[in-house]
Design a protein that fits this description.
Shape: globular
Largest sheet: 5 strands, parallel
CATH topology of the largest domain: Rossmann fold
CATH architecture of the largest domain: 3-Layer(aba) Sandwich
CATH class of the largest domain: Alpha Beta
Structural class: alpha/beta
Order of helices and strands: HHEHEEHEHEHHHHEHEHEHEHH
Number of helices: 14
Strand order of the largest sheet: 2-1-3-4-5
Length: about 350
């Protein structure tokens, strides 16, 4: 089925596969900071307020920068900001649509507390407020589903962090340099590459009719979360994710009862840059759970750096989940139930 061009076109009418194939261009996006009242005040902590795919870029950035950042960096995915947010805090409001109610509220609260603020959006209320109040902002290209614009958001976020002198501007260039490599890697997963040579299609077939379970470590945790999001919104499947070592302290034992033949597809997202003890946990966990859960499917992230592996794994997540959507007989692009929910909340 996945090698049948007619089936792919019929089940992917909005060309989600084409969008995935061009995600490499997002790291080459020229993310320019517009305006911005920045008084060079000392910034002692960073908060990124966002939800879903808009928060995901911040989680990726945090994992990437964690070993070099010397100030706290937190991602807030709710209505209220932490009590510690004050005049020495940088709060970046991140919403692809620009209308996410939790994020719009967080920006207003940050301003009330006198925090330094920035905005990342494709339009909507956030951009309107930023224009009216001269708030530093990066406006990303519109027209995509937020989950498919994560690398736009990541490029914009790092650019804003550099603007506020939280990180070195060279990190923006580091993102850009992976564009051509990601294009070449993505070519391996394109629809015209047959299943026998296309691992994205193979992994989708392994997961058909099952609930996806994604495990990562410190580095690959956000990538595992990206796989969960893509599974939910592209394939319209329930899925779960967790990270090591925390998994071994609770969820691990949950696999030990009930029928062995559980309807799950377990994926281990591994990075060669991960802590060696975490890599050992992947292996020991799979061995001790042999016969108690389906054997895990290891996905060794490709790339010569932590950043490269995160980018590679994020794009792969969309390819695999879009192929799974096609196998499920669902259109991977729209998220009608989420839109209906937002409409009900707006009443």
């Amino acid at each position: 089925m996945l090698d049948d061009t007619n089936v792919l076109k019929q089940r992917d009418p909005s060309n989600a596969l084409g969008v995935a194939a061009e995600q490499w261009k997002q790291v080459e996006f020229d993310a320019a900071v517009v305006d911005g009242d920045y008084d060079k005040r000392p910034i002692t902590k960073v908060v990124v307020a966002g939800m879903g795919g808009s928060a995901l870029a911040a989680l990726l950035a945090k994992a990437w920068l964690e070993q070099t950042l010397t100030i706290p960096f937190e991602v807030v995915r709710e209505y209220d900001l932490p009590a510690y947010v004050d005049t020495s805090t940088l709060v970046i409001a991140s919403s692809y649509s620009g209308n996410t109610e939790e994020t719009v509220g967080a920006l207003a609260e940050a301003q009330q507390r006198g925090a330094q603020v920035g905005v990342l959006a494709a339009g909507g209320t956030l951009v309107e407020v930023a224009e009216q109040q001269n708030i530093a902002r990066v406006v990303v290209p519109a027209g995509l589903q937020p989950r498919m614009a994560v690398l736009f958001n990541l490029k914009a976020l790092v650019t804003l962090l550099a603007h506020f002198e939280v990180v070195d501007g060279s990190l923006v260039d580091e993102l850009s340099r992976y564009g051509q490599w990601l294009k070449d890697e993505s070519a391996k997963w394109l629809p015209e590459v047959t299943t026998d040579k296309n691992e994205a299609k193979q992994w989708a077939l392994m997961a058909t009719g099952k609930t996806g379970v994604f495990y990562g470590g410190r580095i690959t945790g956000p990538v595992a979360y990206k796989w969960k999001i893509s599974w939910n919104e592209n394939a319209k499947n329930v899925s779960m994710w967790n990270i090591y070592p925390e998994t071994n302290h609770n969820e691990f034992i949950g696999w030990s009862s009930h029928p062995v033949d559980k309807p799950f597809a377990v994926f281990d997202l591994r990075s060669s840059f991960e802590h060696p003890r975490i890599l050992k946990r992947f292996d020991v966990s799979d061995r001790l759970l042999s016969g108690l859960r389906p054997k895990s499917i290891p996905i060794n992230l490709a790339g010569d750096s932590v950043l490269a592996q995160m980018l590679w794994g994020s794009i792969l997540a969309d390819f695999v989940s879009i192929y799974l959507a096609i196998l499920n007989g669902v259109d991977p692009t729209p998220v009608n139930l989420i839109e209906s929910f937002k409409a009900e909340m707006a009443k």
